[in-house]
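User: For a benchmark we're assembling, each entry needs the component sequences followed by a predicted structure for the full assembly. Here are entry 17's components. Please fill in the structure.
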Amino acid sequence: MVRLGLIGLGKMGVSHLAIMRTHPDAELVAVCDTTRYVIDTLAKYTGVEVYSDYKRMLREKQLDGVVIATPSRFHAEMVRDALEHGVHVFCEKPFCLDPDVGQRLADLARQRGLVNQVGYHYRFVSAFREAKRLIDGGALGRLHHFRAEAYGPVVLRPKNSTWRASKSEGGGCLYDYASHAIDLVNFLLGEPERVGGTVLNTIFSRDVEDEVYATLFLAGGVTGQIAANWSEDSHRKMSTKMSFWGTNGRLTVDRQETQLYVRDPSVASIPLKAGWTMSYTTGLSENQAFYLRGEEYSAQIDHFVRAIASGDTDTVSTFATAVATDRVAAMMKRDAAGLPEPAAASGLVASGSAAVSSPLPPSATLVRPVRAPWPALFRRARALVS
Ligand SMILES: NC(=O)c1ccc[n+]([C@@H]2O[C@H](COP(=O)([O-])OP(=O)(O)OC[C@H]3O[C@@H](n4cnc5c(N)ncnc54)[C@H](O)[C@@H]3O)[C@@H](O)[C@H]2O)c1
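Assistant: Structure for entry 17:
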């Protein structure tokens, strides 16, 4: 049995709790949350051991792995503490608000040989995995353009008092919604080299953006657009869709199905037929031990448990791949603010360059303030008067 702990028992943590408690090869040993009534209720009705201080839980319990599902600004410090206790870590997305910090944690996990995974669950949706198989198999010929979209109803009125409404806590549509779409671009096509025309608009929120639009530029001349809007209640829950155009056809994928149009099947390295082929999630998905919110949430925890049991640290969604996603989000923030890319932005911190014992700066500097978009405003003002 893999001995697991869980930190954070909110919306996402409670989902993880249900999945972890029913996993046949895992034992949920202890949970931690700072909200008293949450842990009191859990202790009363489930009998699981509860903590209000995660550091104490890490010290007192011999955990194999921990799942971290706290508001995003806490991720970095909690991940570091868990890794330093020699505990394998599954952390919710977005990984870290500062990609440099995230890179140092990825290095630390690698140096310690610990399993590391981030909750980009779309990588476990069977339709997106099928899309990867088709793209990697050359179904589209030379791919030249894509579109990644994510819509859903999170912020539908001006008043919003949770951490999601606060920039410094990791709130906003970029981290909450667009990060999933960025991660899918990275997963399916590779990391963009640069971004342009980024728009971070508010609709109802005061401190964070509610919609995100940008153009992404990838190696080999591939371009794409990203669009995310979390104030969109024509969708009952978050809906993510990707479309790809290539010299040999077109592919559209969402969590429900893949729609593939192929001009010439012979150019691909996998068997295909000409014209349209549809595949549905019902036919593509493997059975899960416990079904909650789709197969992907269970599949990613199952993947984490299996990785711990086998010692295989090469998970589908590692800290390193999540840092790549954080890097693109950071590029989009700089682009929207009219700030230049720092010289080392694409490579960032060289692997292994940070001290293993201290992967984080002092906690006060963990969350970098977002700089005001003055340069962009000045440029626009100058353009207006000239
Ligand atoms: N993958 C997904 O689809 C998905 C969906 C929702 C949320 N998330 C991510 O999951 C994380 C949590 O989001 P949420 O919606 O569950 O938030 P939430 O506000 O519903 O829950 C957060 C919980 O963390 C607890 N907490 C706060 N500080 C703590 C501390 N120091 N120690 C222990 N517990 C603490 C809070 O009391 C609360 O119960 C975020 O990073 C978010 O981006 C991912």
